[in-house]
Amino acid sequence: MPKLLYICGELNEKEKEGTVSPLFYYPYFMFKQQVTDLLHTALEENPSLFLIDFKISADHKILVTLDGDHGVTLQDCMNISRAIEHNLDREEVDFGLEVASAGASAPLLMPRQYVKNIGRSLSVRTASETVEGNLMHADEHGISLQWKAREPKPIGKGKVTVTKEQEIAYTDIIEAKVNIKF
Fold this sequence. Notes:
alpha+beta; GMP Synthetase, Chain A, domain 3; SH3 type barrels; 2 domains
């Protein structure tokens, strides 16, 4: 049997044996493309919102996670949900849909999330250390954190409070979270 290449790549063992057809995946990918197009159209209508995560499981459960420059309201989630749900036919594909905002304790994943959190306290983990400080600046390359630390006086006994600042590239960040204070 000749090797067939299709959207997913090469055939797996079951497909090579002829027990599963590559065409089995076609409706799934068509559905995913349709949902993706609807989602992008809905997000274009509200440019302050942006996509954090988007998944469709094999049983057609759609999970959308959003964030926004000014936060995400319940109405924002409802608008995105309706834009997707009202343009899909449940007779054709039975699906579940969940649209949610990124939680307050969720890690920051995109540069746009850092920009919206300027002035807030962050905990940033890199390969070599964990730094906690106030987010002072964020651009397309990285962030700048500032914090106060107690250090020994250069002359004499005792300690002095100094302001420290560190720039961290996005590529160096393993995880960054906003510190929630109550």
